[in-house]
Amino acid sequence: KAGIYEVKITATDLGGNRTTANTLLYALDVKKTVKAELGSEDFPAEKFLKSKNLKIRYRNKFDIKGCLNREGKYTVPLTVLTKNGKKDIDLRLKVADTTPPKIMGVRYKNIYIGSPVSYRNGVYVKDNQKDEIAFKVDASKVNVKKEGVYTVKYSASDKAGNKTVKKVKVVVMTSDKSHEAEVDKYVKDTL
């Protein structure tokens, strides 16, 4: 696995004299690219460098926070400081939005035949990016004039193409009372 490891080397000459030394082994997979979520606070260098007592510094006043806020591929110039010295390393970083949006407020509904229904009321989308995301509602399978259990599908996609789908059950039932007042209020509030 890629990383920097302390290695103990022991050598024995022909006379049987033995000596031991500690050194560092730098094992880096230079083809491997570390991935970071767009908008992350920290660079995940620990995915490349697994060792205790290491300190990592950026060379050339590298702006890691700027990179983490822009999608793309970057070469990150690092200096790894150990108790025995330092080593310059260039790591590859790919920054992308891979987190799908979350559809919030979706819940099971009971609706009555003859009553108005809003599938969007109280539903919104949250995303790790600042873009406002619209959502779609597919209630085409619901027959509001016939008792039964139906499925409504909510979906949302962000700018990066990450998609979320949530399904909820809707129960259509008959009621003993007239829903004329509810219908009038609904029409008045929505128009």
What does this structure look like?
The protein is mainly β and 191 residues long. It is built from two helices and twelve strands; from the N terminus they run ββββαββββββββα. The chain has helices at 64-68, 180-190, and strands spanning 3-12, 18-27, 33-37, 55-58, 72-82, 85-96, 102-104, 109-112, 124-126, 135-138, 148-157, 163-173. Strands 3-6-5-4 form a four-stranded mixed sheet. The protein has a four-stranded mixed sheet with strand order 8-12-11-10, with no helix packed on it. β11 (148-157) and β12 form a beta hairpin. The longest helix has 11 residues, at 180-190. It is elongated. It starts with a strand and ends with a helix. The model has no long low-confidence stretch (mean pLDDT 83).
Number-wise, the strands total 12
Helix content: under 10%
Overall pLDDT, averaged? 83
Cα shape = elongated
Notable traits:
12 strands; 8% helix; four-stranded mixed beta sheet; 191 residues; single chain
Strand and helix map with partners:
Blueprint lengths: L2 E10 L5 E10 L5 E5 L17 E4 L5 H5 L3 E11 L2 E12 L5 E3 L4 E4 L11 E3 L8 E4 L9 E10 L5 E11 L6 H11 L1
Parallel strand pairs: 3-6, 8-12
Antiparallel strand pairs: 1-2, 4-5, 5-6, 7-9, 10-11, 11-12
